[in-house]
Design a protein that fits this description.
Layout lengths: L1 H30 L3 H10 L4 H4 L3 E4 L28 E6 L15 H7 L7 E6 L17 H13 L4 E7 L1 H9 L5 E5 L10 H7 L4 H19 L8 E7 L3 H11 L15 E4 L12 E7 L6 H7 L3 H9 L6 H4 L19
Parallel strand pairs: 2-3, 2-4, 4-5, 5-6, 6-8, 7-8
Antiparallel strand pairs: 1-3
Length: about 350
């Protein structure tokens, strides 16, 4: 008995030291990519300048443009006197970048550049990250006014550009779906339309989202899609959503829109223009109006990465943007009138 006590006294310090060492290594490794700081700022609303300076990055196509100071990342507002604007502005909402590969301040930049390679369509770019990892629902003052903040910013930019393109994946795709009615074209990969379905551990340790704020996401996504599909926007706009058909997490999200699933949810017909298996040759791929749901036979939630590995991402984006013919002469051309289309529901695994 005495030997067991002595053995316990010897083992306990070793175990405690090992736990503290592993915790230190985890914090040390993740502090640089912002994970720990983003969680702390989400729960406490403490502002960290190292994260805030990465919230917004503006990249004009004209390299000589000096109208937008680099130090204004926390509250970017367009310089109304700038004369270097391109006809197109591409706005990217980064996903859970701080938790995966570090703070990628210019997510989608390389892909969008490749899409427009060898075309005469230059584009300015605005890149957003979410320092608190809370579905962009917190504004730079760390109040729950993020949705209003970003929508107002997009509205302001839409008065200065002929064409606004929104793009994002996962957490960023959610914001794309919430703002799609303000843009010309919106592309969302694996968007989270109902954060509650992620489960409580992920909503706290992953993307922080209380239940009352999850309702904001659900309602805004529904309202935005309904406005686009019923043509109640100020201009024609298209929203293309891509989900992985074989991903359990994507299935739960998609069933909220297309119906079916474990609880046999009803289809939100007022929100949808078409629901189809992905086919790059489908005429709906370059549709300029309506809400189009595309299902890919992939298991990965990170669909965009899977498509990139198989060299399908760039052709897909080119079809959506019409980049092969999106020159300066066609960008200002009047958009086609919306053509009503019947929804085609595909079979998804339960």
């Amino acid at each position: 008995m005495i030997q067991c006590k002595w053995l316990l006294f010897l083992i306990a310090p070793v175990v405690i030291t090992s736990i503290l060492t592993l915790l230190y290594i985890f914090i040390k490794r993740n502090n640089g990519n912002g994970y720990c700081l983003s969680k702390l700022s989400a729960f406490t609303r403490i502002r960290f300048d190292s994260l805030e300076e990465k919230r917004q990055t503006y990249c004009p196509a004209n390299n000589k443009c000096q109208c937008h100071p680099k130090g204004s990342a926390t509250h970017i507002e367009p310089n109304l006197l700038c004369k270097h604007r391109s006809p197109t502005l591409c706005i990217s909402f980064a996903g859970a970048a701080m938790m995966v590969y570090g703070v990628r301040t210019t997510e989608w930049r390389g892909s969008m550049k490749e899409v427009h390679h060898d075309t005469n369509d230059e584009f300015d770019a605005l890149f957003f990250t979410d320092p608190a990892q809370c579905f962009y629902l917190q504004d730079p003052n760390y109040q729950w006014q993020g949705l209003t903040y970003y929508r107002d910013l997009i509205k302001l930019y839409s008065t200065l550009y002929q064409r606004i393109i929104l793009i994002g994946a996962s957490l960023g795709g959610s914001m794309v779906c919430m703002c799609a009615d303000l843009a010309t074209l919106s592309i969302a990969f694996n968007p989270i339309v109902d954060p509650v379905l992620l489960g409580l551990p992920w909503r706290f340790m992953g993307a922080y989202c209380p239940v009352r704020q999850a309702e904001v996401v659900r309602n805004q996504v529904h309202n935005t899609m309904e406005k686009i599909n019923t043509n109640k926007t100020s201009h024609n706009c298209a929203l293309h959503i891509h989900w992985s058909q074989l991903s359990k997490s994507d299935q739960r999200q998609a069933h909220q829109i297309v119906g079916g699933g474990k609880h046999n949810k009803p289809k939100q017909t007022e929100c949808l223009t078409s629901v189809l298996d992905f086919d790059i040759n489908d005429a709906n791929m370059n549709s300029r109006s309506g809400v189009h749901i595309w299902f890919h036979k992939y298991k990965e939630h990170a669909l965009a990465l899977a498509l990139k590995r198989t060299h399908q991402l760039i052709p897909l984006l080119r079809r959506h943007t019409g980049a092969t013919s999106l020159g300066l002469n066609t960008i200002s051309h009047k958009l086609d009138e919306k053509q009503p289309q019947d929804s085609v529901i595909i079979n998804m695994p339960s």
